[in-house]
Design a protein that fits this description.
Elements: H1 10-18, H2 24-27, H3 31-52, H4 55-62, H5 66-72, H6 76-101, H7 107-124, H8 126-136, H9 153-168, H10 178-197, H11 207-217
């Protein structure tokens, strides 16, 4: 769930270098090489998890030597933190992009637009989707912890923004706390996306239409 890019945010890389998450040698690398290492790490962490990813494998597929790896990153845990923070930066930019592009007024149409964007993105960038699903359930890893990071927060904050506006305009009931309504809506959407990505038996035909009807019209006959 991230905007595809051929370059990393160099301001973020400079910040990560100052925080000793990446070494200065990595910061000075050619942007394309940095991006290749990042994307390779995303794919391998998504496929093998933190414990299953071998540094030798990453080096081979990134076309770098093992010696170079340790010139770029203090350890594998630093690599993992680097990838998570870059990915989080992409997510923030992606949600901002959705916010700036969507023109709908009604909350139900804004939720539909967001859901469609999430579905399209997960299909276009399956490695990023798998990485998101892995990391969002693994940040409590016994070896690695990234303080204060919740990869879903950008999505939750945007849903909260939509719901709050819907309450203000009278489209959404106001007798339930906005935060609770936003949480439940986010939970339903995330659950559908996770099941859909896992290729379960979830009906795929007109899912988005039923989702919006369910959320805004209810299931009562």
């Amino acid at each position: 769930m991230a905007i595809d890019s051929n370059t990393l945010n160099e301001n973020l890389i400079a910040e990560l270098s100052s925080r000793k998450i990446v070494n200065e040698t990595f910061r000075r690398l050619d942007p394309k090489k940095k991006n290749k290492i990042y994307k390779t790490a995303v794919r391998l962490f998504a496929e093998y998890g933190y414990d299953g990813l071998a540094i030798d494998q990453l080096c081979e597929q990134s076309s770098i030597s093992k010696g170079s790896f340790f010139q770029y990153f203090p350890s594998k845990s630093h690599l993992f933190e680097f990838v998570i923070l870059v990915f989080d930066d992409y997510l923030a930019g992606w949600i901002d992009d959705i916010r700036n592009k969507e023109t709908a007024v009604l909350a139900r149409n804004r939720i539909l637009y967001l859901y469609q964007a999430l579905v399209i993105n997960s299909r276009l960038f399956p490695d990023e989707e798998r990485f998101f699903l892995y990391v969002s359930s693994s940040l409590s890893h016994a070896t690695v912890a990234v303080e204060g990071i919740d990869l879903s927060r950008h999505f939750h904050e945007y849903v909260n923004e939509i719901i709050r506006r819907g309450v203000e305009t009278g489209e959404i009931r106001g007798d339930v706390e906005v935060d609770l309504t936003s949480y439940l809506v986010s939970l339903i959407i995330e659950g559908i996306l996770r099941r859909s990505y896992a290729e379960s038996d979830l009906p795929k035909i007109r899912t988005e239409e039923h989702l919006i009807s369910f959320l805004f019209d209810g299931i009562k006959a």
